Amino acid sequence: MTQTITRGIKALLQEANREIETMSVADVKAAVARGEAILVDIRDPRELEREGKIPGSFSCTRGMLEFWIDPESPYAKPVFQENKLFIFHCASGSRSALAAKTAQDMGLKPVAHLGGGFKAWRDAGEAVENVEPKAKS
């Protein structure tokens, strides 16, 4: 039997983009520089090692997002309890739109995402730092 998907990725992204703020590279850079925002990188470790990261960004893989946001979770991270604007980003902006919507739906606020993601940041000539692979034990 074939699955019937009633709300595909296009619908989910349209909904997310209607409900969350999308910020430009310049606006993200300014908000972070003013100390008003935390930039949350939701890419996986392989992406970080391959492409680098935005200096000062906080890494949280998409798969742990809900667990790290919820203060009742045993995996909760204090960074998500700060009174800041949380700006999510991924490689190109799709996963971060969904992540920002999920965070907002959980009650985290304010939230936004970086339009165009890490690619937009890099293409704008902004700083990128290398991420070294973690040593295997």
Automatic annotation (TrEMBL):
GO MF entries: thiosulfate-cyanide sulfurtransferase activity
Gene3D superfamilies for the chain: Rhodanese-like domain
Source superkingdom: Bacteria
SMART domains assigned to the protein according to its UniProt record, in alphabetical order: RHOD
Domain called Rhodanese: residue spans: 33-130
The protein's name: Rhodanese-like protein
InterPro entries: Rhodanese-like_dom, Rhodanese-like_dom_sf
Pfam families found in the cross-reference section: Rhodanese
